[in-house]
Design a protein that fits this description.
The chain folds into 3 domains: about 1-130, OB fold (Dihydrolipoamide Acetyltransferase, E2P) (Beta Barrel); about 135-275, Rossmann fold, CATH 3.40.50; about 290-350, Ribonucleotide Reductase Protein R1, domain 1, CATH 1.10.40. The protein is of the alpha/beta class. It has helices at about 1-20, 25-35, 155-165, 185-190, 210-215, 230-235, 295-305, 320-325, 330-350, and strands at about 55-60, 65-70, 75-80, 95-100, 105-110, 115-120, 130-135, 140-145, 170-175, 195-200, 220-225, 265, 270-275. A 6-stranded mixed beta sheet has the order 10-9-8-11-13-12. The protein has a 5-stranded mixed beta barrel with strand order 1-2-3-5-4. The structure holds guanosine-5'-triphosphate, magnesium ion (MG) and zinc ion (ZN). Zinc ion binds near residues 306, 311, 313 and 321.
Length: about 350
C-alpha cells in the first residue's frame, strides 16, 4: 500500500515539474530531470488518505516540534513519528500540513506535496542529504548589501540556481544603498537575465514601496549573507515586528549570525515572508557539475555553438562560450562564477 502510494505521487510530481519548467529549460536538462526526480516528501501516517486536505501552515520547526498556524491560532505541535525522514528534512516553513488533535494534543500527521521548495545539501554530519529550508514559496528574495559587507556575486549566483531547481522566482534586493554613491555595475548582468533588481535602504526608506509591491500576496523568503539586513528589511516593512538585528563586525565587515532559525511572518498588506539565518555559502542540492551550464542562461545559449557537443567550456578549442566572454557578450564575473561553482561541485563529489 505504502509503495503504491509513493509510486503514484512520484508520477504526479514529475509531471508538475516538467510543466512548470517547460519554457525555462533546454531539452537535455528536462530529459535528465525526468529520470532524476527524487521523492523527498515524508509519507503520511498510515491512516491518512492520500488526498487529505491540509489544515495548517508551518511557521517554524525543530526536529520533533513545529509551530503551526491552524484553526485560527498558532500552536506548538508534535511531529508524528510516522513522518520519518527519507533523505530529506520532513518539514520546512511554508509547508502545508494536516494537524489533528490526539488526546487533546495537536500533532502534525501529514505533509502535503510541495509546489516549490528551496534546498541545500545536508552537511557532512547531517541526518539527511537534502535540507529543505523553505516550501511552497512564490518568490526568493536574494538580499545582498551594496556595502558592509561589500557586494559579491558568488552567493547570488548560487541562490539563482537553487531557485531555478526548486521552481521559485528570484528577485535581487540590494540593501544599504545609503552607504554608496551609485549601484554596483555588476547588477546590470542580472537585469539582462530578466531578474527584477530592487535597491533598498532601511535608513532612508528607498525602495521599500517597490519591495512591498513585488511581494504582495506572495509567499516569500529573504535569504543571503549574514549582516546584509534581512531582518532589518522585515522591521522596515513592519516596525511592530521588532526582530533582533546586530551591527556587522568592524574587523571582518561580516554579520554576526543574529537570526538563528527560519520563521514565517505574516505582515499587513498581504505580505508573508520567511526570514532566514544568514549563511556563508550555499551548497547546491540536486545539481551535477555538468548541469551547471544549463543554469546560466547566457552560457547555455552560446554552448550550442561550441565545436564539441560535450564542451565543458574550460579548455576545449573552438569554445563559443569562452569566445563570448572575450567578446563581452557573457559577463566575465558570471563566467568566473560558473567555473567556481562547477569546480566546487566536482570537489563535493570527490569527498
Ligand atoms: N546603513 C544601513 N545599515 C543597515 C541597513 N539595513 C540594515 N542595516 C544594518 O545592518 C546590520 C545587520 O542587519 P540585520 O538585519 O541584523 O542583518 P541580517 O541579514 O538579518 O543578518 P543575520 O540575521 O545575521 O543573517 C544592522 O546593524 C542594521 O542596522 C541599511 O539599509 N543601511
Ligand atoms: Mg537576521
Ligand atoms: Zn564551450
Amino acid at each position: 500500500m505504502a509503495g503504491e502510494r509513493r509510486k503514484k505521487k512520484r508520477r504526479v510530481r514529475e509531471k508538475d515539474w516538467d510543466h512548470r519548467h517547460e519554457d525555462a529549460f533546454t531539452h537535455d536538462l528536462r530529459r535528465h530531470r525526468r529520470t532524476d526526480t527524487a521523492i523527498s516528501d515524508a509519507a503520511p501516517a498510515p491512516d491518512i488518505p492520500e488526498d487529505f486536505e491540509p489544515n495548517g501552515l508551518v511557521i517554524s520547526h525543530s526536529k520533533k516540534w513545529a509551530f503551526v498556524q491552524w484553526d485560527g491560532r498558532e500552536d506548538l505541535c508534535r511531529i508524528s513519528e510516522y513522518l520519518l525522514e527519507r533523505g530529506a528534512t520532513i518539514l520546512a516553513p511554508g509547508d502545508r500540513v494536516l494537524v489533528e488533535a490526539l488526546d487533546g494534543e495537536p500533532w502534525v500527521r501529514a505533509v502535503a506535496p510541495r509546489s516549490s521548495k528551496l534546498s541545500r545539501p545536508g552537511g557532512e554530519h547531517a541526518r539527511v542529504s537534502e535540507q529543505i529550508f523553505a516550501a511552497n514559496i512564490d518568490v526568493l528574495v536574494v538580499v545582498a548589501a551594496a556595502a558592509k559587507p561589500a557586494f559579491k556575486p558568488g552567493l547570488v549566483d548560487r541562490y539563482l540556481i537553487a531557485a531555478e531547481v526548486g521552481g521559485v522566482v528570484p528577485i535581487l534586493c540590494i540593501n544599504k544603498m545609503d552607504l554608496v554613491e551609485k549601484e554596483a555595475p555588476e547588477l546590470e548582468a542580472y537585469r539582462e537575465l530578466g531578474i527584477q533588481v530592487i535597491a533598498t535602504s532601511c535608513e532612508t526608506g528607498e525602495g521599500l514601496d517597490d519591495l512591498r509591491k513585488a511581494l504582495r500576496g506572495k509567499l516569500c523568503v529573504f535569504a543571503g549573507h549574514s549582516g546584509v539586513g534581512k531582518s532589518s528589511l522585515l522591521n522596515s516593512l513592519q516596525p511592530e515586528l521588532d526582530l533582533e538585528t546586530r551591527e556587522v563586525s568592524e574587523a571582518t565587515q561580516r554579520g554576526k549570525h543574529t537570526t538563528s532559525a527560519a520563521r514565517l511572518y505574516e505582515l499587513d498588506d498581504g505580505l508573508r515572508i520567511i526570514d532566514t539565518p544568514g549563511i556563508r555559502q550555499l551548497g547546491l542540492w540536486g545539481v551535477s557539475p555538468e548541469e551547471v551550464a544549463f543554469y546560466f542562461p547566457e552560457i547555455a545559449e552560446q554552448a550550442a555553438a561550441c565545436k564539441f557537443r560535450d564542451c565543458t567550456h574550460t579548455h576545449e578549442p573552438d569554445c563559443a562560450v569562452r569566445q563570448a566572454v572575450d567578446d563581452a557578450q557573457i559577463p566575465r564575473l558570471r563566467f568566473e562564477s560558473f567555473l567556481r561553482i562547477r569546480e566546487s561541485l566536482h570537489e563535493a563529489l570527490g569527498r
